[in-house]
Amino acid sequence: MAHVRKLIRDNIVTTVTGLTTTGTNVFKSRVYPLSAGSLPALTVYTRSEEIIQSTMSIPRTIERTLTVAIDAYVQGLVNYEDSLDAIAVEVENAITADVTRGGYAKDTRITNFEADFSGDPDQPVASSTITIEVDYVTIEDDPEVSV
Other C-beta atoms within 10 Å of 129: how many? Predict the structure, then answer.
């Protein structure tokens, strides 16, 4: 089995794969640059996780808030901001359709949107980041099972 964090991230990748604008151009990482042929695209990755021990008895119950980023990338000379907004609509609708992330989470909420634009005059790349927080609970000696 895998850490619940991975299961939630995989669920998010599956959730945003096949959207109208980005299709199957969804990647589980942001380590390598995307080629122009794979745009528009999304990348999904974990940013951080806040961990709170909510019980005193061992094994303790661990309440977790996972922060996941979904970066959207588009390329073009015009309407790139409109394209990012169209992708945001699709992503937000998909993410909020199941806030339990397939039963692994207690809640999911979209908490932030940021846009960024490159200065390449030939084919500028615009990007945005949608930040999502996912609340879930595990037992401290079994992070592979959501409770």
Answer: 16
